[in-house]
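Deliverable D2.4 — example input (structure tokens):
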């Protein structure tokens, strides 16, 4: 009898598992490829012939469904966006966001030889439709994302970096992208588990995904130690470290840039990560730019806080809160104290200390289970950087832009400094580069996730992290023309700046360099008091809908599906610039200098007329001569406040004094398709720094 019951159970399990395996394995699936790009070019208004560089706007970070994470995010299980292709990205950049340049950057770890060839073909078609190569409507760059992640060994965690190439023609691009590991983790999802996704999506869509996962898994790893030009085309090339990546790029010999991004994101980086640990892997030849803002948030500021403190003997403890950060272990203690009948009693204090230490030992987010009755609002935004403009979730301060600009020595005490130009981009996973032109469609213009049954809850992180998705940023380049080489020269020379999405116009110059005026991004040796000038004009206000040329090219149905019914469509009025803040950083000249003391986040503040006419001012630094040490300066340009998607990721309800009384994170039902989670915030731009080296020392 028992044997019959067991046999029956086995048959029932097999009847359930086998169909799920069959679907998830891709046995019913088939490969898909990108559609054709629409013909161009779009109308472009030529700049006035002034001889001055023009400012062009682009997005150097775009994913399609050729990134496996994007494929999964875009299924009906989460966002129901459907298949997104490189051709969609080209069409969106040309007609929806009207960019001047963009790049494709799918994850190299999931790019098979077949889809890499398809990507190259689309980029070539996109460039072929751009019109006159000397003045194209848009320049399309090809590249990939090298995504290294090692949470178990923090010093060998190198983060994510986009690789961009100047050339795109056949024979002028690598035969294969270069991955950071031999197997993409998402490709290891068990087939029956993947098959379950068919319960909320079509069997064909999930089986196609299973087919692609199998293709990713079955791509063999290239032999190690063989020159890249001698490797076969049908293998996955791997570089485990940035240095190995640079070596392989050297072997290919094509002009390229390697752009780190997401350094301060706690969702993809160890929370204790420190850029000092990877400073020895920094290579100025390739790492000219740093993505400091994206749809995953702002990574600019250094805040000197710790989530967990350590005594000299290595014992962990709960560190104190700062003005802008409360460790969740400390908030756990506060919640325990609030529950005491007598908060001042010694017995209550014992329970508080025990709760904090227990939280430290469990870590976040598991520590929150110590207080299962506490609501999300009870935790009061702990573990997140507060009072900051659209911060990255679970902020990692020692990976921030300001922190790495202040470093002067690597983890071994060797002198080493970065020289980054600052850029913004989108990191959009729906083939929609430049998705920041309007704050009208959170579902389509941000990467927020919606898991059915627990919407907005990304696995493995604190639940409120789902609220920290924004529309993307942009990179602005000062270029002597619209052509590819002019844009590349501006990128390579760091004459660039980042914006949080608006097309604000910004100039930042050293006026009295040894050879005259030096623009943002310059590295200059200077032995006298520096004098600077900042100028800024606000972005144009947007009009609803799309321009006629976009509707004519796409058709109304695709304007709705691809663009969300809205496009970049500037009016005549410029938004006001309200103030300009100057950041001064004095990089370390000794390994033991405290980084926090070297960063002056608002060294100077200039209030602007705020009437839409723009803003301009000059300043000098008389301390520079007295200090006799290197100095770094950049400008933060603040535009007038307006409702932004994710303008306040905490969703604060304030009292009359402006104190946050309740948090209504944009997750759960509040993050539904019709909810944009708008809140007032001030868009901004960050110039690339001007790097000064004191006296007769050589410039970097």
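Example output (designed residues):
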């Amino acid at each position: 009898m028992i044997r019959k019951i067991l046999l029956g159970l086995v048959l029932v399990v097999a009847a359930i598992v086998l169909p799920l395996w069959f679907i998830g394995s891709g046995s019913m699936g088939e490969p898909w490829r990108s559609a054709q790009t629409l013909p161009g070019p779009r109308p472009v208004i030529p700049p006035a012939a002034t001889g001055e560089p023009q400012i062009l706007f682009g997005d150097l970070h775009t994913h399609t469904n050729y990134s496996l994470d994007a494929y999964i995010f875009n299924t009906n299980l989460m966002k129901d966006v459907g298949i997104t292709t490189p051709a969609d990205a080209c069409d969106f950049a040309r007609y929806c966001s009207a960019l001047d340049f963009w790049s494709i950057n799918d994850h190299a770890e999931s790019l098979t030889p077949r889809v890499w060839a398809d990507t190259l073909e689309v980029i070539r078609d996109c460039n072929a439709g751009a019109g006159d190569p000397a003045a194209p409507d848009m320049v399309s760059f090809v590249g990939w994302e090298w995504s290294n992640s090692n949470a178990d060994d923090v010093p060998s965690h190198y983060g994510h970096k986009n690789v961009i190439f100047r050339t795109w023609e056949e024979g002028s691009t690598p035969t294969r992208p270069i991955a950071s590991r031999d197997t993409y983790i998402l490709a290891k999802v068990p087939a029956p588990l993947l098959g379950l996704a068919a319960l909320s999506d079509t069997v064909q869509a999930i089986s196609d995904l299973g087919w692609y996962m199998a293709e990713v898994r079955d791509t063999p790893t290239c032999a190690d130690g063989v020159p890249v030009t001698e490797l076969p085309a049908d293998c996955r090339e791997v570089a485990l470290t940035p240095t190995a990546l640079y070596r392989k790029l050297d072997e290919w010999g094509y002009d390229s840039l390697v752009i780190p991004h997401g350094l301060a994101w706690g969702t993809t980086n160890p929370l204790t990560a420190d850029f000092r640990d990877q400073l020895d892997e920094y290579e100025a030849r390739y790492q000219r730019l740093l993505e400091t803002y994206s749809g995953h948030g702002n990574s600019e500021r250094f805040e000197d806080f710790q989530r967990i403190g350590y005594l000299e003997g290595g014992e962990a403890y709960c560190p104190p809160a700062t003005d802008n950060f409360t460790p969740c272990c400390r908030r756990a203690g506060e919640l325990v104290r609030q529950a005491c009948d007598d908060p001042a009693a010694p017995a209550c204090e014992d329970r508080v200390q025990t709760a904090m230490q227990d939280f430290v030992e469990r870590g976040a987010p598991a520590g929150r289970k110590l207080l299962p009755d506490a609501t999300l609002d009870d935790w009061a935004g702990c573990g997140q950087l507060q009072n900051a403009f659209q911060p990255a979730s679970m902020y990692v301060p020692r990976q921030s832009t300001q922190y790495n600009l202040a470093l002067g020595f690597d983890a071994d005490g060797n002198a080493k400094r970065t020289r980054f130009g600052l850029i913004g981009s989108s990191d959009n996973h729906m083939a929609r580069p430049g998705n920041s032109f309007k704050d009208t469609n959170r579902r389509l213009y941000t990467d927020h996730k919606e898991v059915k049954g627990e919407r907005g809850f990304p696995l493995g992180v604190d639940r409120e992290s789902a609220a920290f998705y924004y529309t993307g940023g942009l990179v602005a380049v000062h270029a002597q023309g619209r052509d590819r080489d002019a844009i590349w020269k501006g990128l390579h020379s760091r004459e660039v700046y980042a914006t949080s999405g608006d097309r604000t116009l910004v100039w930042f110059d050293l006026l009295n360099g040894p050879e005259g005026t030096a623009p943002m991004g310059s590295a200059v040796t200077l032995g006298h008091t520096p004098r600077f000038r900042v100028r800024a004009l606000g972005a144009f206000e947007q009009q609803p809908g799309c321009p006629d040329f976009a509707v004519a090219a796409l058709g109304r149905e695709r304007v709705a599906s691809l663009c969300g019914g809205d496009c970049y469509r500037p009016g005549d009025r410029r938004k006001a610039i309200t103030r300009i803040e100057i950041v001064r950083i004095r990089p370390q000249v000794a390994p033991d200098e405290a980084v926090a003391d070297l960063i002056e986040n608002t060294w100077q503040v200039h209030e602007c007329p705020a009437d839409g006419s723009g803003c301009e001012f000059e300043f000098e630094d008389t301390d520079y001569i007295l200090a006799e040490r290197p100095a770094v300066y950049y400008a933060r340009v603040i535009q007038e406040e307006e409702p932004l998607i994710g303008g306040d990721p905490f969703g604060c309800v304030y009292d009359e004094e402006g104190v946050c009384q309740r948090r209504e994170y944009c997750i759960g039902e509040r993050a539904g398709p019709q909810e944009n989670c708008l809140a007032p915030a001030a868009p901004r731009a960050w110039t690339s720094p001007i790097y000064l080296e004191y006296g007769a020392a050589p410039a970097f």
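The longest helix spans residues 2-24.
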